[in-house]
Amino acid sequence: MQLWVLGHQINTQKVTGDFDLVTGETPPQSQGPPPHFHNTYHEVFLITEGEMEFIVDGKTSVLKNGQTINLPPNSIHTFNNKSDNPCKWINIHSPKGFLSFFENLGISNSENNARTKSLDPKIIQKVIETSSKYDMNIIK
Q: What is the extent of the structural domain holding 11?
């Protein structure tokens, strides 16, 4: 399923293991999600093209093609694409369960202006109001 979630293009992947897997693309000069943490999820990003800035527990690093970052439970994190090129990545959450966040809050790529709709203030407010039910705890 191809979706836009908070300005990022997400392709959900069905897997049989106890993890969720998505591939994604972040357009140039795009803000990531608000800083947040997961109580139970281990999360990994693998950058497959371009670069992405990650802020994890207050420390900033830039990952480039082929680099990974591990985000254990309770690590406060966000990411941004501050470059002038798109960034492609793979994202894994373990154990399985976070995929529903993307599926329930994403805008189908088949809709007109899907990316713009995914950044609508009403969608952002819905993310803020419901994120904790997906174990995405936003830092305010």
A: 2-138
> Which of 108, 122, 79, 131 is CA-nearest to residue 10?
108
pTM: 0.94
pLDDT at 92 over 90: yes
Q: Give the CATH number of the domain where residue 31 resides.
A: 2.60.120.10
C-beta atoms surrounding 84 within 10 Å:
8
Structure tokens at 14: 């069905």
Output the CA–CA distances (angstroms, integers) from residue 37 to 61, 63, 93, 116, 137, in the order listed: 17, 19, 12, 25, 5
